[in-house]
Amino acid sequence: MLAALVVGGAGLLLYDVAAVRADRRAMAWRRELADGLATRPLDDTWVVVGAAVAAVLGVWLLVLAATPGLREILPMRREHADVRAGLDREAAALALRDRAMEVSGVQSAKVRVRRSKAAVKAVSHFRDLDEVRADVESALTAGVDELGLAHPPAVTVRVARPPRKG
């Protein structure tokens, strides 16, 4: 939401600057803001408060940019109020890949788990592709349920034949 608001404000400002460069008048809000900033002294209370808020916001954004966060951790369901758990995305992908490999006819499988989606690419060397896809989807749906995630990802499965040799 904040990013959309910033992009919208920057677009409005860019439009106004382009309009001024095209020999049109600046928007009224920009003229009033420029006049207000030009007439207020730098030691005015509101100027100092605005500068302090901008500085604190900038430091906060720099700290957020420098910290990695928990993007690699998928939150799990909370069975007890005071216990929080998470599952690494690579571990979830490995568990789902193992489930896909148990399906008859699957030669290899690659799984990529994101926050809201688990993408599976399987290679089937025998059996009908639609049957393999249905079996892999049912196995992975059960596997996602067993992971116990708070927000289970949607599973998308693609099944193909192995490439021809030589």
Account of the 3D structure:
The chain is an alpha+beta fold and 166 residues long. Helix content is 52%, strand content 17%. It is built from 5 helices and 5 strands; from the N terminus they run αααββαββαβ. The strands form 2 sheets. The chain has a 3-stranded mixed beta sheet. Strands 1-2 form a two-stranded antiparallel sheet. Strand 3 and strand 4 form a beta hairpin. The two termini are 52 Å apart. The model has no long low-confidence stretch (mean pLDDT 92).
Helical segment count: 5
Structural category = alpha+beta
Q: SSE order in H/E notation?
A: HHHEEHEEHE
Question: What is the percent of helical residues?
Answer: 40-55%
What would the principal axes of the Cα set say about the shape?
elongated
Radius of gyration: 27 Å
Strand order, largest beta sheet: 3-4-5
Tell me about the largest β-sheet.
3 strands, mixed
Short key terms for the protein model shown above:
elongated; three-stranded mixed beta sheet; alpha+beta; two-stranded antiparallel ribbon; 5 helices; 166 residues
